[in-house]
Amino acid sequence: MMHLLKYARKKFLISRLYVKHVKDNPIIQQDIEQTVLVRGCKVNPNTIEKKFHHLMHYYPEYAHIFFWRINGRLHPWKPYFVGDFGCKIFGSTKIDGGLMCYHPFAAVINAKSIGKNFQFRNSLTIGNKANDNTKIPTIGANVIVGANVVIIGDITIGDNVIVGAGSVVVKDVPSNVVIAGNPAKIIRSLNDE
User: Fold this and answer.
1) Which residues pair with 155 in a beta bridge?
2) For residues 162 and 48, what is the distance between their CA atoms, to the nearest angstrom?
3) Which residues are within 8 A (CB) of 193 and not within 5 positions of it... i.e. 6 or more apart?
4) Pairing of strands 185-189, 177-180
5) What does pTM read for this prediction?
6) What is the DSSP letter of 79?
7) d(Cα 67, Cα 161) in Å, to the nearest integer?
8) Which domains does the chain have, with CATH numbers?
9) Cα angle 172-121-165, degrees, rounded to a multiple of 5
10) For the stretch 119-140, what's the b/e string if a residue is b when 16 or more beta carbons lie within 10 angstroms of its beta carbon?
């Protein structure tokens, strides 16, 4: 019985959040669509509202991104959906739609801007150099970042880049490449595929 009451309460809260924050917000809708696509979720009926309900119920990583999007760090309903990830995304960081994460534990993101369809994993550090917030990265669209990656300084990462796990990125990266290592180097071009 208690399980049904918790489920009903979450369903009610999700419906309220949808109407207030998702229904007319194309950026949040892009986050939803990208997360459902990449995770391979099967949602029926295939509506944005149903997808939002599914992600909020079963993916606390998505809920973490959602509450960041609505500037809801202290939102009273957040504890119903999000565990303690220890993930910080600076409010000054502009991130286009399609943002998604896997296990955002110990992640800190402080960038000028990040393009659409950005994916990241645990223990990511994106930040400044020499404690100077004018020296922070700019990251392009369709960038996938592995676990335990460090990206620091006034650098630019192009579009369609895959950053291998454990990489340390301190120099500009062109578009359409895979990089890895410490310091990160191009290991493959995506144009050849």
Assistant:
1) none
2) 28
3) none
4) antiparallel
5) 0.90
6) G
7) 27
8) 2-80 (no CATH), 88-179 (2.160.10.10)
9) 55
10) bbbbbbebbbeeeeeeebbbbb
